[in-house]
Amino acid sequence: MRHDYFAAIEQPVQAYVAGLLAADGNVLERQKRVSLELSHRDLDLVCLVRDQLAPRFPIRERVRPNGVHTVVFAITSAQLCGDLAQLGITPRKSLTLGWPKRLNEDFARPFLLGYFDGDGFITWSQNRNYRYPRWALLGTGAFLSEAMRVINAETGIRPRPIHRKAGTRISALHINGRDAWTVDSWLHADGELGLTRKRLVAKLRDASAA
């Protein structure tokens, strides 16, 4: 087990894994436990995290009461939990998560890509005869505001407002049209990380086939 994996973020894959855990990971403070549970279709993504943190560690499967088949990776490490806390990834992070202050700007893109693969989505919208893509990210208002700042600085697209989802504590950031393509291309610039099914080119291919 690589207890010191997050002691220093020095590689893009480390930032990506941190971003994914920021979105979809779970930290149990008392048990000093870090876990990631995703749909079975994302088994390769769970394996990537496992191979980074604890190579050859077992991954278990389970079927939730709603019938969804998931895969679970969970390990116990006080140091991992402590270092993740320094990145703002803590218990109840869905209400408190902010942009990690100690993350080097050079790793902002892979970190955001990991977060997007967890708590982002792409879809297509229709306005009369005009069909356009929509790139979206969910999270706290503070996190999304900083994510928008990074996107603006790196791509030049104008800042978008952050909207609170009615009746929830969750906020959303939407970027539409050509700018959605710009963000998608920037996030996947290195071509090595990220879920294929969450790329606009894949969505366009699927839509064309339909």
Description:
With 210 residues, the protein is an alpha+beta fold. The chain has a domain at 118-209: Homing endonucleases (Endonuclease I-creI, Roll). The protein is 40% helix and 24% strand. It has helices at residues 12-24, 43-53, 78-86, 93-96, 108-119, 141-155, 178-187, 200-209; strands at 25-28, 33-39, 60-63, 69-76, 120-127, 130-139, 162-164, 171-176. Strands 1-2-4-3 form a four-stranded antiparallel beta sheet. Strands 5-6-8-7 form a four-stranded antiparallel beta sheet.
Task: Offer a few descriptive terms.
four-stranded antiparallel β-sheet, globular, alpha+beta, 8 helices, Endonuclease I-creI, 8 strands, 210 residues
Give the termini distance in whole angstroms.
Answer: 44 Å
Q: Record the strand order, biggest sheet.
A: 1-2-4-3
- Residues in β-strands, percent: 15-25%
Element order, helices and strands? HEEHEEHHHEEHEEHH
The major sheet is characterized as: 4 strands, antiparallel
Radius of gyration: 17 Å
Structural class: alpha+beta
Total strands: the figure is: 8
Roughly what percent helix? 40-55%
CATH architecture of the domain at 118-209: Roll
Number of separate helices: 8
- What fold name stands as the CATH topology of the domain at 118-209? Endonuclease I-creI
Which regions have little confidence, pLDDT < 50, spanning 5+ residues?
none
Which geometry do the CA atoms define?
Answer: globular
Report the mean per-residue pLDDT as an integer.
92
The CATH H-level superfamily of the domain at 118-209 is: Homing endonucleases
CATH class of the domain at 118-209: Alpha Beta
